[in-house]
Amino acid sequence: MNILLIGSGGREHALARKCADSPDTRIYAAPGNPGILQFAHAAHLGEKVLNASHHAEVVEFCEIAAIDLVIIGPEAPLASGLADDLRARNIAVFGPSRLAAQLESSKKFAKDFMQKHGIPTAQYRSFSVQQHAEAREYVANHPLPVVIKADGLAAGKGVSVATSHREALTALDAMFDGKFGAAGHSIVVEEFMQGEEASLFAISDGERFLTLASAQDHKRIGDGDTGENTGGMGAYAPAPLVTPEILHRTEERVIAPVLAAMKQEGMPFVGCLYAGLMIDAEGNPRVVEFNARFGDPETQVICSVLDGDLTKLLHSAALGNLDPSAVRNVASGVACCVVLAAGGYPGEVRKGDEITGIAEAEATGAFVFHAGTALHEEHGNKKLTTNGGRVLGVTARGENLQEAIKASYEAVSKIHFRGKTYRTDIGQKGLDTSK
Ligand code: AMP
Ligand code: GLY
User: Fold this and answer.
1) Structural domain for 79, as ranges
2) Whose CA, among 268, 280, 326, 394, lies 20 to 30 Å from 190?
C-alpha cells in the first residue's frame, strides 16, 4: 500500500511510525520532518519537493506514485479542501471535506450545528465584526468567567478565558481589530464550563466509527495549568477520567449524533473526529471544541498504546467501509508524552540550536517524536537542530501511568538543547483522578 502523509509535526511522526508497522506499506511524506523521514520518503515531483498547498501538485503526485491512501494530518489543508480535490480524482483520502472540516474551521458553524442537533455544549452567542458594539455590551453583562473565541483557525491560540470584564473586552477588541486576521472577523462568546477536560478521537467512514484511547492534553505552557495556551505541552493515554460509562455517554450523546447529522446534512465526516470534552462532576460530557483531525500531542500517545493495523483502519474508513477489526485493543498499556519546546514558546522562538541526546533517550526504551527539528549538514556531519516552537515529543510506555510518566521524564533528562522548555507535571492529573 502506497501512502502519502501530509504534514510535518509530531502527530505525523506518530502516524508514520504506526502506519509503517503495517505490512507492505510504503510511505511518502509531504513535507515530513527528520523523524518522519526515517519511516518515509520525501515526496518529490521530478526534482522538486512536493508542495502540499498546491492541490493540483498533490493530485499529480498521487497519480504518478500510485498512491492508495492519502492521510491529511493538519487542519489547514482540510479547511482548504484538499480532501475534496483528491476525492474528485477518485483518490482515497483519510480526512474530511472542506464542508465537514467546518466543525473545526468555524467555531460558529460548530456551535450552531451542536445547538441545532442537541449536542451538549456551552451556551453561546456569535457576533460578526459589524456587531462590535453589541458584542461589547453582551460581554460586559455576561457572568464571569466568560470565554471569547475567534471563529476561524488560530493555531489553538484564538481562545480567551477571561476572569474579568476588562480582560474579556480587551480580548474581544483584539480579535475584531485583526489580531487573528480574518479568523477573528466573527467571534463566539460562551459560558464557562466547569469540569475536567479530555480528548476523544473517533475514526469514521462517514457513518460508522471506532473511538480510540481517550487522552488528556496539557494546553497551558506552565506547570499546574498556568500561563499561556499552547498547541499542547504533553499528553497521556488512556485517561482514567474517561471511564467506560463516560465513554459510552460520549459515544451516544456526541459522536454518534454528530456523525449522523453531518451525513444527513450532506457533509459526511470521513476522518478523525476529535471531540474536546469537558466532563462535569456527574460524569456528563459537554463539547468544548471539535477538531477535524488527529490531535497533537495526543496522537503520539494514542498511537503508542494502539494494538492493531492503523493503515488498514484508516484505509477502510477512507473507502467508506470501516473495519474496526483492524484494531485488536485501543489501549494496551499507558503512554505519556512530554513535549520539549524551544525557549520563548508559545511566543517568538529561536531556531538553529543543536539537539543532542536523542539516542541516549531512546536507549532507555522511550521514543522521541520530532516536531520542529531540522537536519543540517556541516563538513560532512549531520547535525539535528531546533526548527520550531514544539521541538520534540518524548514518549514512553508503562504498565500504568506512574511508570509511563517516570520513564518519559527519565528520557527527557537525556536530551539537551539551548532553551529546552517543558512541563514537569505531565500526567499528574491522571494520577490524581486515579486516587
Ligand atoms: P479550544 O481551542 O476551543 O479547545 O479552547 C482552548 C481551551 O480553552 C480549552 O482546552 C479549554 O481549556 C478552554 N475553554 C474553551 N472553551 C471553554 C469553555 N466554554 N469553558 C471552559 N473552558 C473553555
Ligand atoms: N492538542 C490539541 C490539538 O491538537 O488541537
Assistant:
1) 2-94
2) 268
